Amino acid sequence: MIKAGSGSELIVKLEDGEDLLEGLAGLGVEAGLVFGIGMVREAKLGYWNGSAYEEHELKEPAELLSLQCNLSLKDGKPFPHCHAVLGRRDGTVMGGHLLSAKVHNVNELYIKRLRIKLERRQEESGLFGLHLG
Asked: Which of 37, 64, 111, 129 is the most buried (most CB within 10 A)?
């Protein structure tokens, strides 16, 4: 991981083989927004069917066409909640809640730190919803 920033902005470059979600959590940002591009492999995306995530796995490398996350605290620890759109070699795309992914070649991320308290708490739906502090 390579990172640089000033004030509330941070640019992060994750390198081949790094775990994308672990990398984001490891930044220690307690409230923020993430936007990113790059490539991933061994990705798992989820679709919330109302009671559980249906998992869809994409093992081969794919373009990370769009990554959008919010960073908050869950059980007192930094937690990235991310959605991604992945482009396959044949031009088709798949997207959803990012459950896991390894960086393939590189990911380039922009992080905006927020000066508010954000927390995830379990809701009646079973999802961990964002709560503003």
From this structure: 64
